Amino acid sequence: MFKLSKKVAVVTGASRGIGRSMAETYARAGAHVICVSRNEDALNVVADGIKSNGGSASVTAINVSNLEEFQNLIKDTTDTYGSVDILVNNAGITRDTLIVRMSEEDWDTVIDVNLKGAFNGIKAVTRTMMKQRFGRIINISSVVGLTGNAGQVNYAASKAGLIGLTKATAKEIGSRGITVNCIAPGYIATDMTGQMDDKAKDLLISQIPLGRIGSPDDIAATALFLASDEAGYITGQTFTVDGGMVMI
Ligand SMILES: NC(=O)c1ccc[n+]([C@@H]2O[C@H](COP(=O)([O-])OP(=O)(O)OC[C@H]3O[C@@H](n4cnc5c(N)ncnc54)[C@H](OP(=O)(O)O)[C@@H]3O)[C@@H](O)[C@H]2O)c1
Fold first, then answer.
1. What pLDDT was estimated at residue 63?
2. If 0-12 CB within 10 Å is exposed, 13-18 middle and 19+ buried, where does residue 2 land?
3. Atom 25 of ligand 1, nearest CA residue
4. Reduced to 3 states, what is the DSSP secondary structure of residue 139?
5. Is 155 a catalytic residue?
6. Cβ of 38 below 6 Å from ligand 1
């Protein structure tokens, strides 16, 4: 198991699903985790669970698409805990429909949360990490950002955008000891993917070489490795964690 002792980690979208699993995994590895989403009550449930298992966590409710809120979060974190070592830009939404029916608002909202939200996080944290000469930034993309998907032009564009954002940032700040990487999950069982009938589930599983739908813990394990000291020579990369569904 990789260790994150004495590290301070900010995980967005930590109120449920993949973000919750990453927050719990980081805390088990010894990090103090700041759990972030818009819903303070849900975040408190996650943080209380972490603390009752002997971990360390706090919560901050922000909308990631608001730069000022993100900057205040990072300032409060450095004032209170002395550093921000790990940032996971995981908060994400879908507004699926075919492009002929997609409203400008469907487009703007998804780009604002999924892509601008990650820009805001990186912008807010970069100076602190540069001064520390250490940082781990992990952006949660999607296989859809690599392949495209009908009915998701906004989501696919935001997730492909994250891969470009990751590469460009990795080139800019690598010399300061900061790594920037992406994880592209495949189909993971969370609220976002919802309930599927057995027929649709069987069809999906038949397209996954490892023969099962992923769990949030599958993503958290990769996120733990990328946050660890052992991953210090990896930057600008996208790791597909999808049971082999997409092989490029
Ligand atoms: N599940 C999958 O199959 C899958 C596949 C590929 C990629 N992903 C990506 O993985 C990430 C997590 O997905 P998930 O399946 O765990 O989704 P989820 O269960 O729907 O959770 C989404 C999280 O994002 C937070 N969030 C949404 N909008 C926000 C905003 N404006 N500001 C702050 N927080 C916000 C939500 O918290 P609140 O509602 O409490 O604010 C929640 O914690 C997303 O980026 C998603 O695109 C998921």
1. 98
2. middle
3. 13
4. strand
5. yes
6. yes
**What mean pLDDT is reported for the chain?**
97
Kindly name the residue from 26, 81, 155, 233 that is annotated as catalytic.
Answer: 155
User: Tens digits of per-residue pLDDT, 144-154?
Assistant: 999 999 999 99
Q: How many beta carbons lie within 10 A of that of residue 102, not counting itself?
A: 17
- In angstroms, the Cα distances linking 20 to 25, 43, 115 are 9, 9, 20
Segment holding 12, helix H or strand E: strand 8-12
**Residue 188 near ligand 1, beta carbon < 6 Å:** yes
Is the shortest distance between the CB of 191 and ligand 1 below 6 Å?
Answer: yes
Q: Produce one character per residue of 208-234: b if its CB has 16 or more CB atoms within 10 Å, e if not.
A: beeeebbebebbbbbbbebbbeebeee
Domain ranges of the chain: 8-241
Structural tokens at position 200? 């649709």
Residue nearest (by alpha carbon) to ligand 1 atom 32: 63
- Is the pLDDT reported for residue 195 higher than 90? no
The domain made up of 8-241 has a fold known as Rossmann fold (3.40.50)
How much is the pLDDT for 139?
99
CA angle 58, 166, 76 (to 5 degrees): 25
Q: Tokens at residue 62, please?
A: 């922000």
- Is the shortest distance between the CB of 41 and ligand 1 below 6 Å? no
Is the CB of residue 165 less than 8 Å from the CB of residue 171? no
